[in-house]
């Protein structure tokens, strides 16, 4: 099958992979766009995993005010170089993350950043609830584990469904941009203010 420029361009837009990588993947999979795309995504995720160990101290602080100025967000998003920090792609990601935080109100960045005392308090509450409902002791731990997963998905930024594409997590959006830009990208910290909220 002949590999056309349009096919390469489309695959590049979908995966963020380089032109030569797209051509090679299409040739390997006889023009099968789906198979070539899956291969490039897997290759990109492996590369992104390797990049996650690299230092990311450049980036920017994005400030977002929700229309009506009732919610405000500041988020620090880091990358490896100031060159990438200045790209429209990176700035767009920072803006999307700030907008997501304004809308979804996460409390933590990841499950690893949730304080141990919060985790223990949640587990104890779920355990007490399950026992009060008469659930057998041998399945209580599984119930608590399931409820904790839901708690993390609701309160941790990286595990929340992305506000503009709820089939994907915020972490998936960041990984896509990591692959496309070729640098480690992390959310360092954020703060969200809502008018009239309790301090």
Features:
two-stranded antiparallel ribbon, alpha+beta, 55% helix, three-stranded antiparallel beta sheet, 199 residues, 8 helices
Quick structural overview:
This protein has about 200 residues and is α+β, with helices and mostly antiparallel strands. It is about 55% helix and about 15% strand. The strands form two sheets. Strands 1-2-5 form a three-stranded antiparallel β-sheet.
If you had to describe this structure to a student in words, what would you say it looks like?
Helix 1 crosses helix 2, helix 5 packs antiparallel against helix 8 (170-181) and helix 6 (116-132) crosses helix 7. By secondary structure, this protein is α+β, with helices and mostly antiparallel strands. The chain has helices spanning 5-15, 19-28, 33-51, 82-85, 88-104, 116-132, 137-155, 170-181; strands spanning 58-65, 71-79, 161-162, 165-169, 186-194. The radius of gyration is 21 Å and the shape is globular. The chain contains 8 helices and 5 strands, in the order H-H-H-E-E-H-H-H-H-E-E-H-E. A 3-stranded antiparallel sheet has the order 1-2-5. Strands 3-4 form a two-stranded antiparallel sheet. The model has no long low-confidence stretch (mean pLDDT 87).
Strand order of the largest sheet: 1-2-5
Euclidean distance between termini CA atoms: 64 Å
- What's the total count of β strands? 5
Largest sheet: 3 strands, antiparallel
Low-confidence stretches: none
Helix content range: 40-55%
Derived from helix and strand composition plus strand pairing, the structural class reads alpha+beta
């Amino acid at each position: 099958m002949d590999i056309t420029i349009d096919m390469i361009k489309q695959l590049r837009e979908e995966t963020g992979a380089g032109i030569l990588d797209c051509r090679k993947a299409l040739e390997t999979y006889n023009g099968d766009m789906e198979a070539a795309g899956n291969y490039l995504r897997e290759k990109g995720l492996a590369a992104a995993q390797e990049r996650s160990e690299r230092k990311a101290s450049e980036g920017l602080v994005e400030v977002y005010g929700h229309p009506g100025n009732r919610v405000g967000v500041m988020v620090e998003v880091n990358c490896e170089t100031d060159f990438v920090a200045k790209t429209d792609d990176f700035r767009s990601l920072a803006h999307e993350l700030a907008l997501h935080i304004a809308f979804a109100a996460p409390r933590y960045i990841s499950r690893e950043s949730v304080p141990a005392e919060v985790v223990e308090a949640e587990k104890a509450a779920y355990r007490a609830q399950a026992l009060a409902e008469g659930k057998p002791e041998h399945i209580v731990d599984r119930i608590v584990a399931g409820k904790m997963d839901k708690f993390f998905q609701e309160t941790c930024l990286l595990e929340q469904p992305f506000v503009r594409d709820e089939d994907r997590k915020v972490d998936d959006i960041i990984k896509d941009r990591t692959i496309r830009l070729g640098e480690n990208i992390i959310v360092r910290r954020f703060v969200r203010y809502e008018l009239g909220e309790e301090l």
